[in-house]
Amino acid sequence: MIRDVHLLLKLRADLLKNITMNRRNLLKIIGINLPFLSNLAIAKTTNLHRYYWNGIFFGNPAEMIIISESKNKVLKLINRILVELNRLEKVFYLQRNDSQINQLNKNKILYSPDSDLVNAIRLSEKFYSISKGTFDITVQPLWNAFIKEKKPNLLGIGFQNIEYSNKIVLLSNKNTEITLNAIAQGIITDRINEIILNNGINNCLINFGEGKGNGIDLNNKKWKVKMNDIEYEIQNNGFSYTDPKSTLLPNGKHHLFNALDKDSSKFSRATAVIAKSATLADILSTTYSISDNLTRNKIKKAFPKANIVSS
User: Fold this and answer.
1) Average of pLDDT values for 237-258?
2) Under a CB-based contact definition with an 8 Å cutoff, are residues 82 and 191 in contact?
3) Cα angle for residues 271, 305, 118 (degrees, 5° grid)
4) What is the full DSSP assignment across 236-256?
5) Model confidence, pTM
6) SS3 assignment, position 195
């Protein structure tokens, strides 16, 4: 049985009353505000229907639009997706005591890590290198301290404190803790998108804070999302939005950390990214937002096909 399934099925209208504002609240599927698995529309010339689902994931609103001829097929697909989301929460979610990332941060060693966790660390190392250390997943101690308005212990910050393989992950400094929030949602979005495609559905739009649009909407309309009040067309691409103003900590600092400064980034600005995958869009939007102009230019040259818009 899935843990807290009832939470996953709560209406978004109820969720938004109680949720702390963050980047997810600034990214919306245009024109949608309906309960779980509503049948929104039917195509003019086919028997395809447009189904909408919303729920809770990683403590925040999540939503999907799926184009299908069968509600029963969509219900079975949603059940499979919920099982996978529960599995991925057990890997990445910092608010779950039993998650692999929490066990790693607590014990400083993790045997037989999930392959998704290892792949996330590997990609994070790539962006650590591209940003010359500005982006670094070992900044979790900053969050832990700032959320309590305490002075952080800086001794464990630095990617050099992480050793990993497919069999083990080791944090070699007792003060090191990691966060994968700048990439995990993208990985998860791409995984759910893969499940949908493998079940014979080619047209869908997913928004888990980071999102992915596949195919088209009904009647040959392109998918549209709004990021920070700007409308974007999404077709067979991932998307992500990062804004330093979206989550402010009790000490007045924001949640986008520059690991070199060991503080909230002074360069940060709102950044929207459309890229081939949600994973790439996710990590690009964070890295670009926290970096100086020299690094931003380097990022754009390294990923010329990504559409990066900042303000």
Assistant:
1) 89
2) no
3) 75
4) SEEEEEE-TTSSB-TTS-BS-
5) 0.86
6) helix
